[in-house]
Design brief:
Helix content of chain B: over 70%
Structural class of chain A: alpha/beta
Number of strands of chain B: 0
Number of helices of chain B: 10
Oligomer: heterodimer
Shape of chain A: globular
Strand content of chain A: 5-15%
Distance between the termini of chain B: 30 Å
Number of strands of chain A: 7
Number of domains of chain B: 1
Amino acid sequence: MALEGPNGAGKTSTLRMLAGLLSQAEGTIIFRDGDGTIVADGEERSRLVAWLGHQNGIKAQLSVAENADFFAKLFGAGGYAQIIQRVGLGELAELPAAYLSAGQMRRLALTRLVLSHRPLWLLDEPMASLDRSGRALATGLIEEHCASGGIAIVASHEPLSLASAKLVLGS
Amino acid sequence: MTALWALVVRDVRLALRAGGGTLLAAAFFATVAALVPLGVGPDLQLLARIAGGVLWVAALLATLLTLDRLFQVDFEDGSLDVLALSPVTLEAICAAKMAAHWLTTGLPLILLAPVLALLFNMNTEAYGVLLLSLGIGTPALTAIGHIGAGITVSLKRGGLILSLLVLPLEVPIIIFGAAAVMNAADGGQTALLLLAAFSLGAVILSPFATAAAVRLNLGS
């Protein structure tokens, strides 16, 4: 689903509320799992979410591989080698993340989505600073995720190049 | 467990790399402790008497230096959001961060302390008690420091308010820690036991208090 709206419309806040990082002033957020039962517990709910915010959550002092390895271990995923190849950082694995460009940082952050194996992806401007092939890559990852039964809610200024429902805030 | 261990390893690595501040805290500890004899003068008996107190205050200040960036770096670069949504509870994450902080701040101070005690002409029998008291007390410095760091995480320049929050809470550590070294002749046992009780309480409660504070700050 694409989340659109002008600056300040509340796209980021909406995503943070869905993730459980921000508590809403009113209203309720209801998650249902595969068989339709309501997931009421906040901790359990946050375990369904893979988060990509404005900030990438990458440590500049650690190498690309160390960052990816940490994500893999934190989320209990297997290897990270395949995914960093996929996002085009395979050659740079040993380089400290401080030397990456903004777009390469974003690519590294995308690996976390895949490594977390969560059904609901909440993405805040995922295409920010990505070049054309980076956008194609991100779009491909989102498409694959949705094809395998996942949900992605994407806040974005630019129209996504994939079929999606659309929610416009502040209109 | 793998996830927690990975977090400890990550934090230790970050602390040891450029800008991590581990060496800074140890160097600060050594500098403060080395300055006091210069100010007090060459009265060996007086120095031996104040050694415990000075080393403890220096250890406390050195730890204080490292606190303001504990959660703030993770908050600013978005890592804290990721950690909050990870499979590990925030309480366990805080505990892992405390372990990493103690390994990179508390432990170096303990290792440095005997060398600095030489400068104070400290009694030989007091060395063991000094090390024991630091070993028991530095985890409490870490634990209470984390609560303060958690509360001030979203403040841009929270360093000063953090010190004001944390220092009064650390008074018992200084009192019992220094008293143990001062009464080393009779083993300093009462003070050590009280220090241990305080430290245990702080270490057990801190992850919960810190996690609650961080949650509150993430939502704002």
